[in-house]
From TrEMBL:
GO terms for cellular component: extracellular space. It holds the Pfam family Fibrinogen_C. SUPFAM superfamilies: Fibrinogen C-terminal domain-like. This is Fibrinogen C-terminal domain-containing protein. Residues 1-19 form the signal peptide. It comes from Mytilus coruscus. The lineage of its organism: Eukaryota, Metazoa, Spiralia, Lophotrochozoa, Mollusca. Keywords: Signal.
Length: 318
């Protein structure tokens, strides 16, 4: 069985199909076989090749398979999609596949088929170009699109505005996906977010917020974040209890926080700082010590953390 894609071959047969409103379609081609139909053929027509036969089937309402007899150059169209067949020399069967010509790209990791393994996949957020993301398909029923991951300190997170906007690191390893992509994904529908944290002893905890949104660059990637549940505590606040909810993104070179200083410098991190934050998951110093600039989630551990992961998934539909 081979695949025959009529769209790519259209140019060669344009003299035959010029009068058709051509629709691209993939066919399975089975050589040396003939259809044994249980119904009356839709049409029999003399043509010059199996490609022309496939094109005619493409453009014929209800045609799902066709038989091309090379010996008498006859194309026979059938309604059956999985017709019975028998061996026959000089004959070929063309069956429309159920695979669409262009597979629609998933809009986020939740649209990958059930049973898909965790790994790097291409997604295409609405009205955006395709990007590669790490899909976490094992944790918490899977379907999570990863926006940040750290586990060994190999990637520098003390970066500038444009770095955080475009993303950095390796998608399969430590990385920040990028604020512009985060916005592009989140604007598609309603999302939840999950923060996973791990200390240097291997203890883990998580925080889920059942609603997250991040605005565009004009709004300095302003964060909306509500609905905490989890085991790590709600550290998306500053020391005064001011929530990250409603805060804009701050980096070492772009101070949008409510501190008199620049929290991007103080905490060595790009983040939605208030004044500044108890959740410094992009902290620029990788150590188990609890420092103002280490990775930390203060409501869970008073020490520097080894691993972090931030992931988003559409809110469950009720
Ligand atoms: Ca400031």
């Amino acid at each position: 069985m081979i695949h025959l894609k009529t769209a790519f071959l259209l140019a060669y047969f344009s003299q035959f199909v010029a009068c058709f409103n051509f629709i691209s379609q993939i066919f399975d081609l089975e050589r040396n076989a003939r259809i044994i139909s249980s119904g009356t053929p839709i049409k029999k027509i003399k043509v010059n090749s199996e490609i022309e036969c496939a094109v005619i089937c493409s453009n014929t309402y209800k045609c799902c398979s066709s038989n091309y007899d090379m010996y008498i150059e006859q194309c026979t169209l059938f309604m059956e999609c999985s017709p019975k067949s028998q061996q026959a020399q000089e004959s070929q069967i063309l069956m429309k596949t159920h695979t669409p010509d262009i597979n629609p790209q998933p809009k986020d990791c939740s649209e990958l088929p059930p049973g898909t393994s965790s790994g790097v996949y291409d997604i295409t957020p609405a009205n955006e170009s395709t990007i590669s993301v790490f899909c976490e398909m094992d944790t918490d029923n899977g379907g999570w699109t990863t926006i940040q991951r750290r586990y060994d300190g190999t990637v520098d997170f003390y970066r500038f505005w444009d770095d955080y906007k475009a993303g950095f690191g390796e998608i399969a390893g430590e990385h920040w996906l990028g604020n512009s992509y985060l916005h592009a994904i989140l604007r598609q529908r309603s999302y939840q977010v999950r923060f996973d944290v791990e200390d240097f002893s291997g203890n883990t905890a998580y925080a889920i917020y059942n609603a997250i949104y991040v605005g565009d660059e004009k709004n300095n990637f302003k964060l909306s974040l509500t609905g905490y549940t989890g085991t790590a505590g709600n550290a998306m606040v500053d020391r005064d209890g001011t929530p990250m909810n409603g805060m804009m993104f701050t980096t070492r070179d772009r101070d949008n926080d409510i501190s008199t200083d620049n929290c991007g410098n103080i905490k060595k991190s790009g983040w939605w700082h208030a004044a500044c934050t108890w959740a410094n998951l992009n902290g620029g110093v990788y150590t188990d010590e609890i420092l103002i600039k280490s990775i930390h989630w203060i409501t869970w551990k008073q020490k520097g953390l080894k691993g972090t992961r931030i992931m988003i998934k559409p809110q469950p539909s009720f």
